[in-house]
Specification:
The protein is about 35% helix and about 30% strand. It has about 110 residues and is of the alpha+beta class. It has 2 domains: about 60 residues, no CATH class; about 45 residues, no CATH class. The strands form 2 sheets. A 3-stranded antiparallel beta sheet has the order 1-2-3, with no helix packed on it. The protein has a two-stranded antiparallel sheet with strand order 4-5. A hairpin with a 4-residue loop joins strand 4 and strand 5.
Length: about 110
């Protein structure tokens, strides 16, 4: 039997007395990332037994709203592209990307 390799991604969250995130740092040594700061993280995990996704959405109290809007837009674009790769559903992924364009336009985060 071949040896199985394991890879770890670690997310460390420092919270204040009210459990509000003050700092988020992440490490993915296989990717060359060690204790890098971040102002927000979204993590989704599929629970195949319950047939539902489980999520953790965190952001620091100093995350600017304008950056949060860009973060959401980029996350939506990434999800649309991942959906296309995972399902090969060109039509729906194109529809999702159209919504991303609309989202960016309405939030006025469109890059000219």
């Amino acid at each position: 039997m071949a040896n199985k390799l394991k890879s770890e991604i670690k997310i460390a969250v420092t919270v204040d007395e009210n459990n509000v995130p003050e700092a988020i740092n992440w490490t993915a040594k296989d990717g060359g990332v060690v204790n890098e700061p971040s102002k927000a993280v979204m993590l989704s995990v599929w629970d195949h037994k319950a047939q539902e996704s489980l999520r953790i959405d965190l952001w620091t109290k100093d995350m600017p709203v304008d950056e949060m809007k860009v973060f959401y837009h980029q996350t939506l674009v990434s999800m649309a592209k991942t959906f296309q790769r995972a399902t090969n559903d060109e039509k729906m992924s194109a529809t999702m990307l159209d919504f991303c364009d609309y989202f960016a336009e309405k939030l006025e985060i469109v890059k000219k």
